[in-house]
Amino acid sequence: MGGMPLPALSVGDAAPGFNLPGVDRFHSLSEQNGRAGTVVVFWRNGCTVCRSETGALRKIAAEWMGKGFAFVAINSADGGRERGESFADMQRLYHGEYLPFPYVKDLTQQTALAYRVAMTPAVFVVDAKGAIAYVGGLAGLPAALEAIAAGRAAPASGPAMKGTPLRLSEGLVPRESDHSLAAGERMPAFELVGVDGELHRFSPPLKRKATAFVFTCNSCPEAIEYQERLIALAKRYKPDVREAAAEIVLINSNDVRQVAEDSFDAMRVLAKSKAYPFAYLYDETQDVAKAFGATRTPQVFVVDGGGVVRYAGPIDDNPTDAGKVSRRYLQDALDAVVAGRRPEIARIEPSGCTIKWKKDARP
């Protein structure tokens, strides 16, 4: 993949979420909630091993989809540099091979980076709780599914993966090089102007037992989807309910020259129309986003009263349907920190839109 090799995901790790366009519609990992598990296969049209194993994969999927497992194939190839990997090429393969499962495009290759994929095909099984239960090749998949269905631990890894190395797009680097703050690291002190016209300062020790800094914006579809959920969550921590033990703070770091809907004036209009019960701050210089290592909207950092990050990641596990959420990462993290405990889950890879960086300002 170029650069320093990343540590591979292993059994027990939290599976990174995704919400990617397929040949029919968008598909997310979280939409498979309630199933026995989800088989995530990184696939490519031009991969010789992938094409030779298409029949076997189709057969395995036909059997195990009937037993409660979901399947999704992800194409992370750079369609602009590699022939035969465009979205149109994917559609032709999908219909030509009669694939019985979604085939989605990882346009930014960030999902491949999140899963530490070095070559295709690569197979991951995500259990019903959202944890990686199997990593390996297609040959070991049936045995892994048998074990998981029976409530047993699958092999820590399957037969060695063989296939075609994944080529990253020009200039793309692993997410870790963005130095995103992780659990145990201390937040930066900062001050930003809010839509209320006030200057808001945050410097440890903080006033609350738990504070959630949510990097968001007006324009991102996923950020819009979460507006009502964040409002409802913020109201849980009003003084008459939780003695103001926690608070949520929204931060918009997008470059307004790229997205006019994210201007400070537009932020004010949105906050007023939605009667935001929290601060909505404007990170015009993008320095705060860079200090936190934020890369997506929405992306959450929950810190304790001492300013130590205790959770980093998405708001919950279903950006498209609030009624089908099964893991409320932000709410669980706030409740844990308020109670003096460490959240059960400390990090999940965020999805959503990329922060729109100013020219030559990307960290």
Key terms for this structure?
5-stranded mixed β-sheet, alpha+beta, Glutaredoxin, 363 residues, disordered N terminus, 2 domains
How would you describe this structure to a colleague?
The chain has 11 helices and 18 strands. The protein is α+β, with helices and mostly antiparallel strands and about 375 residues long. The chain folds into 2 domains: about 150 residues, Glutaredoxin (3-Layer(aba) Sandwich); about 180 residues, 3-Layer(aba) Sandwich (Glutaredoxin), CATH 3.40.30.10. The strands form 5 sheets. The protein has a 7-stranded mixed β-sheet. A 5-stranded mixed β-sheet has the order 5-4-3-7-8. The longest helix has 12 residues. The radius of gyration is 21 Å and the shape is globular. The N terminus is likely disordered.
Write the layout of secondary structure elements.
Layout: E1 19-21, E2 26-28, E3 37-42, H1 48-52, H2 54-65, E4 69-75, H3 87-96, E5 103-105, H4 110-114, E6 119-120, E7 122-127, E8 132-136, H5 141-149, E9 164-165, E10 190-194, E11 199-202, E12 210-216, H6 221-225, H7 227-235, H8 239-242, E13 246-252, H9 264-274, E14 279-282, H10 287-292, E15 296-297, E16 299-304, E17 309-313, H11 329-338, E18 353-354
Parallel strand pairs: 3-4, 4-5, 12-13, 13-14
Antiparallel strand pairs: 1-2, 3-7, 6-9, 7-8, 10-11, 10-14, 12-16, 15-18, 16-17
